[in-house]
């Protein structure tokens, strides 16, 4: 089934303005300033429910863990914790934010290929749900910390299953030459498992893999299930190891432009469950809890960045540049991954679209392009330009390049808006700069 066009799905009000969560986007900009990242909270909740419901319908044990690198904000942790999800963190900073957002420590898992000793210590002190162990150095660091503190922790073994996800090479992580996880083929993963199960301070809950990000079809996950279950079978035969959980990571795709056609959340989950059921029963293993870690698929489509149009440059017969007051500092994805976005003129979304323009930011880089071929009505300075689907890996990858402050972020729902991250000020930017 082909998804409808994004521009057919936009919501507008009586004034003919684009709305987000029932709030007029022009009012948002006038109240909170520009650029502004506005989330439609109902979209986040609806995606969460689609993932959860598919597990509930299949009546299998599961956990949905939000990959918080997609959008790490105290309010977001509060929201997902309230919806019953866990979260994964990849740094001390994300851990602190998750705890501040009231995420129960036992629902937190810690990922990363180079967890610092101080971060491992924070995780142990908080007694989080599990540490997803990535390499031998980490096992050594963790062992030392556990000994010093005379305590224990639950762990999960991250393996690189040797699967190349069909996505951009920078966001593909399951292949053998990935920097993440223990390689299966060379026997590293088996050696790691042995070390962990022999360590009385580490309680091995199961295995984890993550094949990549922005994946549209379940095929790669089904292949990952096959590899992981065959690994579990070997480990069961060799070590009597029985996994309590099988974590298949995140990577479920989101829609940025019309040509993106990701499978719906429930399709991914249904196909994963069917394959786990089949393979686990063939291998005659105990049925594990199935964990998934969606990040982008929960946050991306819920977020829209609102910019104000400034200058323009027309090179007749070549191109038309429309500049906005943000750019690669709030959305690095086009420059980093050639990611594609759409643009909507929020003050008159239904006006005749008569020009193809290049929407560029205000940063001193020629690559600071937000939308390459945006079909828009004629724009004027002061117009509000909306770039949809910026809710994942936008704010979290933002920078202060050119000493531009990072934007504010609001949550919108049922016609109400709430500021959840305030705009940085020039004073904020000078906070750490001590001078001579
Ligand atoms: C281990 C792990 N889990 C989950 C995710 C979330 O991925 P996505 O945002 O594509 O769902 C990532 C990021 O790619 C990851 O590295
Ligand atoms: N930051 C990436 C995804 C990385 C996923 C994390 N392993 C993106 O914007 O698409």
Automatic annotation (TrEMBL):
EC number(s) given by UniProt: 4.1.1.20
One Pfam family matching this protein: Orn_Arg_deC_N
Amino acids binding substrate: 296, 333, 337, 365, 393
Catalytic function, reaction form: meso-2,6-diaminopimelate + H(+) = L-lysine + CO2
Modified residues (N6-(pyridoxal phosphate)lysine): 69
Subunit record text: Homodimer.
Family: Belongs to the Orn/Lys/Arg decarboxylase class-II family. LysA subfamily.
Protein name in UniProt: Diaminopimelate decarboxylase
Organism: Liquorilactobacillus mali KCTC 3596 = DSM 20444
């Amino acid at each position: 089934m082909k998804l409808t066009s994004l521009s057919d799905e936009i919501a507008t009000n009586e004034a003919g303005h684009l709305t987000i969560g029932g709030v007029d986007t022009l009012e948002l900009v006038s109240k909170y300033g520009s650029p502004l990242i506005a989330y439609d909270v109902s979209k986040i909740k609806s995606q969460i429910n689609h993932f959860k419901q598919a597990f509930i319908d299949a009546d299998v044990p599961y956990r949905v863990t939000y990959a918080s690198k997609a959008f790490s904000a105290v309010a977001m942790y509060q929201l997902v914790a309230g919806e019953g999800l866990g979260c994964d963190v990849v740094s001390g900073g994300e851990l602190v934010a998750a705890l501040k957002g009231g995420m129960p420590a036992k629902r937190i898992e810690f990922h990363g290929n180079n967890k610092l000793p101080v971060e491992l210590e924070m995780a142990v002190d908080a007694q989080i749900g599990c540490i997803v162990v990535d390499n031998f150095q980490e096992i050594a660091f963790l062992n030392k910390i556990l000994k010093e503190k005379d305590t224990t922790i639950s762990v999960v073994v991250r393996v690189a299953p040797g699967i190349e996800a069909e996505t951009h090479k920078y966001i593909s992580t399951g292949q053998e030459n990935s920097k993440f996880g223990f390689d299966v083929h060379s026997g590293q993963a088996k050696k790691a498992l042995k070390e962990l199960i022999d360590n009385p301070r580490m309680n091995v809950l199961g295995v984890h893999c993550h094949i990549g990000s922005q994946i549209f079809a379940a095929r790669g996950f089904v292949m990952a299930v096959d590899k992981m279950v065959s690994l579990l079978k070997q480990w069961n035969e060799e070590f009597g190891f029985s996994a309590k959980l099988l974590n298949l990571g995140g990577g479920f795709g989101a829609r940025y432009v019309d040509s993106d056609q990701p499978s719906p959340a429930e399709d991914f989950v249904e196909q994963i469950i069917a394959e786990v059921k089949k393979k686990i029963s063939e291998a005659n293993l105990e049925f594990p809890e199935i964990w998934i870690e969606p990040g982008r698929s929960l946050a991306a489509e819920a977020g829209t960045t609102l910019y104000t149009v400034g200058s323009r440059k027309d090179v007749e017969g070549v191109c038309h540049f429309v500049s906005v007051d943000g750019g690669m500092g709030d959305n690095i994805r086009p420059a980093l991954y050639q990611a594609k976005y759409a643009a909507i003129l929020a003050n008159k979304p239904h006006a005749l679209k008569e020009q193809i323009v290049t929407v560029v930011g205000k940063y001193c880089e020629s690559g600071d392009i937000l939308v390459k071929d945006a079909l828009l009505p004629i724009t004027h300075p002061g117009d509000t330009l909306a770039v949809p689907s910026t809710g994942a890996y936008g704010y979290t990858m933002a920078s202060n390049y050119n000493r531009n402050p990072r934007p504010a972020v609001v949550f919108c729902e049922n016609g109400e808006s709430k500021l959840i991250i305030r705009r940085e000020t020039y004073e904020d930017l000078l906070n750490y700069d001590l001078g001579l």
